[in-house]
Design a protein that fits this description.
2 strands; single chain; Growth Hormone, Chain: A; disordered N terminus; mainly alpha; 78% helix
Amino acid sequence: MARGVGAVSIPRGVWVLGAVSLCMDLSSELVHALLPLYMATVLGASALFIGVVEGVAESLALVVKLFSGVVSDRFGKRKPLVLAGYGLAALSKFAFPLAPSLGWIVAARFADRVGKGIRGAPRDALIADITPAAVRGRSFGLRQALDTVGAIGGPVLALAGMMWFAGNFQAVFWIAVIPAVICVALIVVGVDEPERKSEAGKPALHWSDWRELPASFWFIVTIAAVLTLARFSEAFLLLRAQDTGFTTARAPLVMVVMSIVYAITAYPTGVAQDRGGGPYLLALGLAALIAADVVLARAASPSMVLAGAALWGLHMGLTQGLLAALVAATAPERLRGSAFGVFNLVSGIALLVASTLAGWLWDVYGPAFTFYTGAAFTAIAAIGLVWRRGDVRALRAG
């Protein structure tokens, strides 16, 4: 059954892919909510090391998305790549409770993110393939919302597991295996790929085809890159929570708060985008990130960290689904997988730089300076958007 607004419905496949995202995020965010703390408190890793690992891991995922997107365009098949990516991520979940050393943990983290990279661009392109343009914003907003419901459940399970197992990280990591396996089963039985239209006489892909990506697409890519520079890895939210008095067992609460706000705002943002509200959403997203960074920089208590995490989630809800919908709207149909790959590659490079810089700033100048730097990058992005306000207004048509 499909649901939607008016005469146009959100396809069933989008709902299934949303459920798949929910299950995998439930698994991944359970691990992610504990991993920085496990690395710092049990394995003795520094903030700089954690920042580099997180930056490389997330960037690796986004770089791999470029190649998986191109492959899905070239061969006209997206589901096999989606299944392979989620399958690898599911297998990596077995490694976290079994890993005997920091090196194994890092390898498992990288494998998990490679799986994310393999599935990411083909999945987003598949959603664009099966979704009518009239509900594109809603569809991406729905998938993002369901994904974020999993991101709420992951830290909640982490909190409950740490209490139940008396702080035993490995025992809690085993919980993450269950939703990961369910996720793979949902793809196998519940996702159908439509036949893609072929263009007679047109080769699958050549380097010259990149010229078909319009200026509006590259503008979206630039916006995303600058925002990623301003928003480093969420691992630093967990470290900030611990820095202001959260116990190790309760620190994942900040991820719960962030994810609740993210989930609540993602779908309404998609609806507003379908109605032409892109420029306003982007401006609000920038304002929310600046506010989050300032609050987190000045945080002297757990309640202030939770407030900053909520503002961080508001920023994510206002921007992430919006940017994905705009990529789908501006890229030619035959290059959608490649377009999402390029989009994520550029964002991945920016994330690596941002997370490494944040780790260095944290170790050398402290947490407050790190978050103030994020606010400064966001302000620079806002100035750039005002300068290119004609291009921003054009987003209404996306």
